[in-house]
Amino acid sequence: MPRIVTYNVHRCVGTDRRLDVGRIAQVLAELKPDVVALQELDVGRRRTGHVDQAHEIAQRLDMAWHFNAALTVEEERYGDAILTRYPERLVQVGPLPGHPAIRALEPRGALWVEVEVEGVPVQIINTHLGLVPKEQQIQARRLAGPDWLQHPHCFGPKILLGDFNATATSVVYRTFLTGLTPARTLCRSSTPTATFPSALPVLRIDHLFVSPEIRVHDVFAPYSPLTRVASDHLPLVMDFDVVG
Question: Which strand (E) or helix (H) includes residue 58?
């Protein structure tokens, strides 16, 4: 059964303030995913030892990867990635709009990769929205519109996932309910899906939204000594299959 994980890795700095790319890779290796969406990766940044974290994690997991830099400063980059062991192709990367009245906000972006899951193309979009509600709403509308989810090439099975910095009661969350369904509402299990903060998770701000062609079997946020310390978020895991 295919498994997908979304995980904000906090530039591979854990709650113990230790930088450890290998620890993040270990969390993922133990979960045995087929597709991984990562947020908050550093690539070539001085603060994290100039390591290409996307490449390092993908190499340790023996996966292909695509990275989108939401922020670029000279040769330093920061952003999100999709890793997979399935046949894949990059469809699109790009920035998401900020709030026009607040210029100092961290840039945000999205990354769209098509993966072939058991012979069926599945559109996967990974994102990390901003912290300000009005900013999030602008970004969510862009994702829900013709540039992304309503793009002519974004048809058939699709999964939107990532760190939305918004709960299920938010306008942002409701923005994606036309055509997509929150994965956690489709599974029968009652396993915890709160992901933040990892030491004592009480907030559901990491989400998976799926189209009707995705049959969800389980959604859970693994809570272990390792996941509690590796990042300030827990990973969010979905087991699924694709129906015709």
Answer: helix 53-61
